[in-house]
Every structure is written in C-alpha cells, then in structure tokens.
Amino acid sequence: MDTNTQNLSQKSDEVAGHAQEKKDEMMSKASDATQTAKDKASDATQTAKDKASDATHTAKDKASSTAQSAQQSAHETKDQAGNILQKTGEQVKSMAQGAADAVKSTLGINTDTTSSHPNITSKN
User: Composition bias, kind Low complexity: at what positions (predicted)?
Assistant: First the structure.
C-alpha cells in the first residue's frame, strides 16, 4: 500500500475510534439522565404517597374525634333530659299531693295537724 492510502486508513480508523468513544460517552450520559429522571419520578411518587397517607390519617383522626365528641354530646344531652324529666316528675307529684291535701282539707278529712301548704287554710 502506498503511504497516502495507509495514512487515510489510519485516519479513518482514528476517526471511527473517536466516533465510537463519543457515541459511548453520549449513551452513558443519556443512560445517566434517564436514571436521574427515574429516581426523581420515584421520589416524587413516594412523596405523593406519603402526603396522601398523612392526609388519610389526619382525616381519619378528625372523623374519629368528631364522632367521639358527638357521642359525648349526645350522652350529656341524654343526662340533661333525664334530669329535667326527674324534676318535672317530682313537681307533678308535689302538685298532685298539694291538690289532694287541699281537697282533703276542704272536705274536712285532713289528718295532718299542721298543713304542709301554708296558703291553704282548713275550714274546721
């Protein structure tokens, strides 16, 4: 072979080798960029999952707290209603006893020597 052909062949091999190195370098950079993008996407997905989980737990805690508060309020209302009914029953009983005493006193069959109702006077 002549020298020019050898030089051209050698240059061609150098250029091909250099092109292969550049290709390998670019493929490596592309692979690195792809892996970085995958990592970022995975991190973003995990962050979203964590936030959703936290929001779910917060909502569950609030719902539980609200239910407990409603249950406590209902229990207190029930107790108050029971107290009101008891007082009302006692008042009705007292009024009925007073009316019975007044009727007995009016009819002269009151056996009490002292009236429990000072506003009612005996006609004896």
Answer: 64-74
